[in-house]
Amino acid sequence: MFWWHREVSPGVRVAFTDAGAGNLAFHVGGDPDAVGANRAALEAALETEPGAGIPRLQFMDQVHGSTVAEVARGDYASGTGPTADAMVSADVPLAVMVADCVPVVLLGRMAGGVPLAAVAHAGRPGVASQVVPKTVAAMRSRGAEGILAWLGPSVCGECYEVPGAMRAQVAAIEPASYATTRWGTPALDLPAAVLSQLAALGVPAERIQGCTFEERALFSYRRDGNGSRAGRIAGVVYAGG
Residue 48: is its pLDDT beyond 90? Predict the structure, then answer.
């Protein structure tokens, strides 16, 4: 179920799922009941102690934009969420879904040591529109300091082939995105771009290795197409026992 799972500070954990967790997205043509069951199983797996009472994961309606939503417990009914590509919260476990884009999880501390968590969906449009820097700015506007970031599995720069004009367009905004496939064609390196953006903001980041296109244990839109065959993995941040 988990590609990577770690307690990153006392009571706060970050995880990235693999295909063993099943498809976690309602919008890609899968059976809604199966998706609901997959999400429930993931939430159950996040319970570190019986009755720990961790709230349900907050997902969002991702649209390849750069809107950052601030969410709190009780804002959304189960199965609903903001139309956004990033979320910030001090009291709700957050989830971001991908199938080649970069799932970014962030954690900072506000006054009194209260954790402030965030997630961001950094695909090609999100990198170009600065969704990750905007997420960091939203966290800092709430007083977060000592922000750390984790980048989950995504398509690598050697596999993400794009037209030359597209590479030039994105690289003009974020030069670190410029890449070439292993077979010698134009490509974009989205993880490198996100790492560069975070470094420019002074945010230390850890990249969790794993190319979604190459690893059959991960979902990939580019490899499998849309629909339930591809599915979506998730990056999550949550507080537990």
Answer: no
